[in-house]
Amino acid sequence: MKQYLAAAVAGVLIVSTGLVHAYWTGVFGSVDHSAVLQQFADRLQDVPLEVGDWSGEDLQEMDARERLVAGATAALSRRYVNRQTKQGVSVFMVTGYFRNIAQHTPDQCYVAAGFTMLNPPIQYSVETDVGKLDAYTTVFKKDESTGTQYLRVFWTWSYDGEWQAPNMPRVALVGKPALYKMYLVTETAPNQEIGQNPSIDFMLQFIPALNAALFKDSTAPGRGETPPMPGSESPVAPTSPTEPSS
User: Fold this and answer.
1) pLDDT of residue 67
2) CA distance 94 to 67
3) pLDDT, tens digit, 9 for 90 and up, residues 84-134
4) What percent of the chain stands above pLDDT 70?
5) How far apart are CA 77 and CA 72, in angstroms?
6) Phi, psi at 70, each rounded to 5°
7) Which alpha helices (DSSP H) does the chain contain, by range?
8) DSSP for residue 243
9) Three-class secondary structure of residue 238 per DSSP
10) pLDDT at residue 220, rounded to an integer
11) CA distances from 199 to 67, 82, 90, 205 (A)
12) Distance between CA atoms of 7 and 4, rounded to whole angstroms?
């Protein structure tokens, strides 16, 4: 009897492992991943430089090694300055297959680049004209010869215009043919309230224009073709100026 039970348990484990691997590698679904990846990469070029009160300037692009480490097929590095307040927000975006884009988060990469994370990341929401944006955010500190630098970083993902900060992103975003990941980075005082950070005003003006550029179609390619991954119903929150490579 014990032998039959052990064999049954082994069979379940094998099948479950196979299902998880199939979801993780995108076996289920009929989406042409290469076409979607190229479309996501091309649309980064359409992100506007002028948005409301904010004017943008392109920064140095990620080199081939940085893109390889990030698993990105394309990237955008840009700094926006508010013409009225002169406050600045740096925007860093990458796109690629979900297995790569769902990882390499600032709580890992900035720390690896020599920053100290002052507090664990929290989830923060901003209501925009095109819906709610959810992001992780925290402050990073780095002591340099010229003084101490404090950076407030927001990071979030999207596939279809809904910007998310899910628990366990690598599980919650599994199976998507392509993803965008966005960082918003500003200099900050260590005790500045999140709501006072210029990134908040920037998001309110930027996200509607960004979504119009990236998600021209009412439905993202392949949306809804990947069923939920088994066991992902109750995820646990993670411990978590170009994207530092981890």
Assistant:
1) 66
2) 8
3) 999 999 999 999 988 888 888 898 889 989 999 999 999 999 999 999 999
4) 73
5) 13
6) -80, -10
7) 2-25, 33-43, 64-70, 98-101, 106-112, 169-172, 198-214
8) P
9) coil
10) 44
11) 25, 11, 9, 10
12) 5
Task: Look up tokens 């109750």; give the residue.
Answer: 234
pLDDT at 206: 98
- H or E segment and range at residue 197: none
Q: Do the bridges between strand 54-58 and strand 74-82 make them parallel or antiparallel, or are there none, so unpaired?
A: antiparallel
What tokens were used for 203?
Answer: 């998001």
Q: Are 238 and 167 in contact (CB under 8 A)?
A: yes
16-73 pLDDT, tens per residue?
A: 223 333 344 443 444 557 888 999 999 999 999 999 999 999 998 877 777 666 677 8
Please answer whether residues 203 and 185 qualify as being in contact, where contact means their C-beta atoms are separated by less than 8 angstroms: no
Burial grade of 129 (CB within 10 A; 0-12, 13-18, 19 or more): exposed
Residues, the chain? 246
Spatial neighbors of 116 by CB under 8 A, at least 6 apart, are 140, 141, 142
4 has a pLDDT exceeding 60: no
- Three-state DSSP at 203 gives helix
Q: Report how far residue 10's alpha carbon sits from residue 18's, in angstroms, rounded to the nearest whole number.
A: 12
Cβ–Cβ < 8 Å for 125, 202 = no
